[in-house]
Write a structure and sequence with these properties.
- It catalyses: apo-[aryl-carrier protein] + CoA = holo-[aryl-carrier protein] + adenosine 3',5'-bisphosphate + H(+); apo-[peptidyl-carrier protein] + CoA = holo-[peptidyl-carrier protein] + adenosine 3',5'-bisphosphate + H(+).
- This is Enterobactin synthase component D.
- It comes from Aliisedimentitalea scapharcae.
- Belongs to the P-Pant transferase superfamily. EntD family.
- It holds the Pfam family ACPS.
- The protein has two domains: 108 residues, Alpha-Beta Complex (Ribosomal Protein L22, Chain A), CATH 3.90.470; 107 residues, Ribosomal Protein L22, Chain A, CATH 3.90.470.
- The longest helix has 23 residues.
- Helix content is 31%, strand content 27%.
- By secondary structure, the protein is of the alpha+beta class.
- It has a five-stranded antiparallel β-sheet with strand order 6-10-9-8-7. It has a three-stranded antiparallel β-sheet with strand order 1-5-4. Strands 2-3 form a two-stranded antiparallel sheet.
Length: 225
Amino acid sequence: MTDRTKARLDLVRPLFSASLGVAVTDPQAQAPAPMAEEIAGLSPRAIDKRRREFAAGRHAVRIAMAQIGVPAAPVRVGSDRAPIWPDGIVGGLTHTTTCAIAVVGRRAPVHSIGVDVEEDTPLKEKLLSEICLPREQVWLASQADPLRLAKLIFSAKEAAYKAQYPYSRTVFGFSGMETEWDLAQGRFTARLQRDVAPFATGHRINGRFAMGQGILVTGVEMEAV
């Protein structure tokens, strides 16, 4: 593990419960080949960058599984492109060009995990109204680095969406959630803007975030609904 990868793991680990396995890998380094059942989910036309990120993510999954005493098992790609976790296991998986993160746990008490990593760069201004609702834009306007925090809002909505998806199996856009932030405590809340069964309008999904080492990371753990 390189110094940068270790520093990123130290950043990410506190976002999640101690009972969960958390691993960070580097897609720019050589990773073990994914299992055959996993590779089957990759497009034959996948470019090298995509293949590297995929392999780094599955390598992180294996490390996280080992941390909680789970034997290595394939995490296949579903028809909806979401990971299919082994029976009794829940997990979250995310990657960028320089960082892959996996978070894995046993199904009880955690029933769903959402994690997202982004490069620590500002959101493109032209995307602001697509990602952020009006009240979020008002909040951003009062902050010292609004486009960097807009990227954090993007990440939080991704993590919260991933956490709720195993329950709802519903696809919706960034307007489907509005976030609130406690920057000092490293916490956020994503509030649903419409009914998404089994969740009602106003349902709150709580998460944590960290910024540093060139990345923005958001994480969500959900118990049974």
